[in-house]
Write a structure and sequence with these properties.
The protein has about 80 residues and is mostly helical. Helices cover about 95% and strands about 0% of the residues. The chain has one helix at about 1-75. The protein is rod-shaped and about 110 Å long.
């Protein structure tokens, strides 16, 4: 009788156990995915931001240098 009840309980708990495993697995997967996604986003965003800032600053420096050179050249003439 006890074996029958234990077997019945085990059979009844199999879907519950599978559902718990699925939920825990999904939860862990989403946590890991969120962390990896955030980390990759920060790295890529940081690199792109730095590259764009460097390019813009190089262009600004060049334009300022050209304007200053032109201004100095015309003032000398």
């Amino acid at each position: 009788m006890i074996k029958y009840i234990m077997k019945l309980t085990e059979e009844h708990l199999k879907p519950v156990r599978a559902q718990v495993y699925d939920q825990v697995g999904d939860q862990v997967w989403y946590q890991v995915w969120d962390q990896v996604r955030d980390q990759v986003y920060r790295q890529v965003y940081g690199q792109v931001r730095d590259q764009v800032r460097d390019q813009v600053m190089d262009q600004v420096r060049y334009q300022v240098a050209v304007q200053v050179d032109d201004q100095v050249y015309y003032e000398i003439d």
